[in-house]
Write a structure and sequence with these properties.
The protein has 12 helices and 7 strands. By secondary structure, the protein is an alpha/beta fold. The chain has one domain: 3-Layer(aba) Sandwich (Rossmann fold). It is globular and about 45 Å long. It binds iron/sulfur cluster and zinc ion (ZN).
């Protein structure tokens, strides 16, 4: 059932083809470790190259452990492993950024820096697609959060960027139809040992509140998360059409990465934080 859904989702969204070089965003948590294993198994049927990319945000007492898991899983499957750090890219790690107490909660800094590094890192590793372990729960939460924050434009570009650029690496989410609980079971059944510690900054995240609401609703009304995902997929074309009208594509004046403004979000953030 698990593998069937994984493969069906890949076919439904034409996520993969023979000869792809896929970067896997590997945090070392359950979703990305299960994704790595599923992709390694799929590679036996569909010839492709895999490279795993781990972002070290610099979160003391947490990231070291998941980095170890990521390294172990790559060695187990013989997959090339690239580690990129906030410290190297932004000259500050997340713990130092949080100490500045500037401009926003930890997850908002973390999200901007991680997305930037994953895209750049995948391209520099020669990948043409970036696979992430986002599951059904994550996607339903993201849809809900963007509605609650009145950010439909973000929703429009969630599955792929509005403006096409060879510098943007297409993101794929083969677990977007797989419930989080099933991934946890998959890891147990397949002997993937995990350190189940939560990020110490997770408590600041709006996502935590949304997760709680959705889990409670799912409990009372089973199928809610699937229905949110399906509604989003139904609306996606209309959203993309609306927001692509005035979409601009520029190259960041500071780093050259693609963005919709003169300077990209990463460079803006790093400037504010320094
Ligand atoms: Fe980053 Fe927030 Fe996730 Fe921690 S919980 S890794 S700070 S996005
Ligand atoms: Zn930039």
């Amino acid at each position: 059932m698990f593998d069937k859904r994984f493969r069906k989702t890949i076919r439904e969204f034409s996520m993969l083809k023979a000869g792809d070089r896929i970067a896997i965003g590997l945090s070392g948590g359950k979703d990305s470790c299960a994704l790595l294993q599923s992709m390694v198994q799929l590679k036996e049927k569909l010839p492709m190259e895999l490279v795993a990319i781990t972002i070290n945000e610099g979160i003391k007492g947490y990231r070291e452990k998941t980095l170890k898991t990521a390294k172990r899983e790559c060695e187990k499957h013989g997959v090339e492993h690239v580690v990129l750090s906030f410290k190297e890219a932004a000259e500050m790690d997340l713990d130092e950024i949080v100490k500045t107490k500037k401009d926003g909660v930890p997850c908002s800094h973390c999200g901007v820096l991680r997305r930037y590094l994953l895209n750049k890192g995948s391209r520099e590793a020669g990948a043409n697609k970036l696979a992430t372990g986002h599951n059904l729960d994550d996607v339903a939460q993201t849809v809900f959060m963007n509605i609650m924050r009145n950010e439909p434009a973000r929703l429009a570009r969630y599955l792929e960027p509005i403006s096409q650029s060879s510098k943007f690496i297409r993101r794929i989410r083969p677990f977007m139809r797989t419930p989080e609980k099933e991934i946890a079971i998959y890891c147990m059944v397949n002997g993937i040992e995990l350190d189940n510690m939560d990020c110490p900054y997770a408590g600041f995240a709006f996502r935590g509140q949304v997760r709680k609401i959705l889990n409670e609703t799912e409990e009372k009304y089973p199928g809610t998360k699937f229905r949110i995902l399906n509604s989003f997929i139904e609306m996606e074309d209309a959203l993309r059409a609306k927001y692509s009208v005035n979409a601009k594509l520029e190259s960041c004046k500071s780093c050259g990465e693609p963005c919709s403004d003169e300077v990209c979000m990463f460079c803006k953030k790093v400037k504010v934080l320094k």
